Amino acid sequence: MLLDTPRDRASTLSFSFPLSRSAALSRLAAFVPDAGAQYATGRSESAVGPGGHDGVSRLSAAIRRRLIAEDVVAGAVIRAHGANAAATFLRELCWRSYWKGWLEQHPRVWGAWKQAVAKHAGQLPSGYDAAVGGETGIDAFDAWARELRETGYLHNWARMQVASIWIFTLQLPWELGAAWMYRHLLDADPASNTLSWRWVAGLHTQGKIYLADRDLIRRRSGGRFDPKGLATTGDVPRETARVVTEPMRTPLAPDALRDTLLLLTPEDLSLECQAAIRALPIRGVVACRSLCDGPADIAAVADGLQRGWEHWRVPIAWVDTIDDVAALAAREGAKQIVTGYAPIGPVADALGEARGRGIAIAEHHRAWDMAAWPHCNRGFFTFAKQLPALFATMASDEEGLRELA
Ligand SMILES: Cc1cc2nc3c(=O)[nH]c(=O)nc-3n(C[C@H](O)[C@H](O)[C@H](O)COP(=O)(O)OP(=O)(O)OC[C@H]3O[C@@H](n4cnc5c(N)ncnc54)[C@H](O)[C@@H]3O)c2cc1C
């Protein structure tokens, strides 16, 4: 299946997209002064790359892996500007929490997407190779396809145009487009990527499709692009499975008194800043190669391991599989394996399989997610009403905020 092909992200490990906590905190500190009115007015102007994305934070690869978590980013921005002056930035940040919470309550959407990708991969539609190769003849699309491949990043607005042109002009299956983008993005996220593609396709807000507009692209690109032949109407693609709302998973909670092997995955790489994790009797910290998806994950997890060692001064190790994690726990006399909560995605899939084989892994659920996610089962604007309360209860990563002070 297409998702299993080797990642193309090796060439994109660069300083432009921080993949360590200290680089992410530095980027955040540099960006905070621009996160208020300047972000609200300047964000769209920096849509066309490569380079030139100064109006946005470019923190997504770090936030996606929680090298810094949403509460640190929101806390720093609110302290500098207040929540009202930074409302545009905070709203964008919270789209991430919304998508995560929505997918937790609609887990079958993830399974249906994977199945559809596997089905299409058996017989790729004509036009697919030209699209992923950036050879469609639609200048903006082709330039963005190349930028994605070469840098692992696209500005949010460019992602919207690319997804729209893919679905409505090139008439390719949205699932394949989402898989292609996921494969190249340094910030590839199961919820933000899959659900944003569904939003563009008109599958999220029922029937409301997003159409890329030739004049707008010409204006925003300062005349660099003039994409001809864009679709001016479009039909919502067919759902391949019924969208069902389900209760959120209740993870096995860590036992505060048991000797613990801490497992780091790309889902949460600042666990040492969480009070509940700091209080555990940690005997070792381990990372698992099979839970990493390419060099960007490996770089970020290696940074997490290093910080784990600096914090606890206990043995750290890389192993290959979850079975190796269980064997290490047994060998070292750890009575439980604890990791950060794994939201819907490849890590949760792998932990679920391990659970099925009798390997119990407790998960630390962050206060931010527990407060936000229950409000994410309807539209974004319903969720947005909860944001003042969410901002009032955050600041769980006090160390991150102190480092920024
Ligand atoms: C088709 C499509 C696919 C996408 N795929 C992903 C993905 O795989 N991973 C991912 O992290 N984001 C994804 N996004 C959302 C968004 O494009 C990126 O988060 C953003 O461009 C990252 O750049 P930044 O860090 O400079 O963002 P900034 O504008 O500086 O925003 C700060 C942070 O807020 C969050 N954020 C901002 N906008 C959004 C948004 N619209 N949706 C969700 N979170 C947001 C990100 O964590 C981001 O780092 C996708 C959007 C679209 C339209």
From TrEMBL:
Its cofactor is FAD. Residues 89-229 form the Cryptochrome/DNA photolyase FAD-binding domain. InterPro entries: Crypto/Photolyase_FAD-like_sf, Cryptochr/Photolyase_FAD-bd, Cryptochrome/DNA_photolyase_1. Coiled coil: none annotated. The keyword Translocase does not apply. Keywords: FAD, Flavoprotein, Lyase. FAD binds at residues 39, 89, 187-189. It comes from the Bacteria. It holds the Pfam family FAD_binding_7. One of its GO terms (molecular function) is FAD binding. Binds 1 FAD per subunit. This is Deoxyribodipyrimidine photolyase. It comes from Sphingomonas pokkalii.
